[in-house]
Specification:
By secondary structure, the protein is mainly beta. The protein has a nine-stranded antiparallel sheet with strand order 2-1-9-8-7-6-5-4-3, with no helix packed on it. Strand 8 and strand 9 form a beta hairpin. It is flat, with a radius of gyration of 16 Å. The model has no long low-confidence stretch (mean pLDDT about 90).
């Protein structure tokens, strides 16, 4: 992985239920750090016909056709052949639990993870991670 080889410093801000902490860190395992992004892979044979794909001059947008699937939309923004950002929206919902995730990745510069969980009788739990990758 390119980020593992570069070993950049990251200005990482974590906000949990409104309480914020920020510090500069070295990420020891980028695969674990960005696992939530790679877990959003749509390349499962059973999902072949489950997403609408729109191609435009600015990139691609995958939108679910099946409301039961967790990943609702993936937008890959491009400039020419270069990916400028990836945006992922996912949601899981049932009678007692609702979870939404918004993920943003800007290659070699920034990543954001925002998650909200609502559990009946327990309440709402939110967290956000912003990682600014320093060259």
């Amino acid at each position: 992985m390119r980020l593992s080889a570069a070993n950049p410093t990251v200005l990482k801000k974590v906000i949990h239920n409104g309480i914020s902490e920020e510090k500069q860190v070295k990420i020891p395992n980028w695969k674990n750090e960005l696992d939530v992004f790679s877990a959003s892979d749509l390349n499962k044979p059973s999902w072949r016909d489950s997403y609408n794909i729109k191609v435009n001059v600015n990139g691609l947008v995958y939108t679910t056709l099946d409301s039961t699937l967790k990943i609702k939309r993936i937008r890959i923004n491009k400039s020419g052949n270069r990916i400028t950002s990836i945006d992922i929206e996912s949601q899981v919902s049932n009678e007692i639990y609702n979870s939404t995730e918004l993920l943003n990745y800007y290659p070699d510069s920034l990543y954001k993870i925002k998650k909200t969980q609502q559990v009946k009788l327990i309440g709402t739990n939110t967290y956000q991670i912003n990682g600014k990758i320093k060259p």
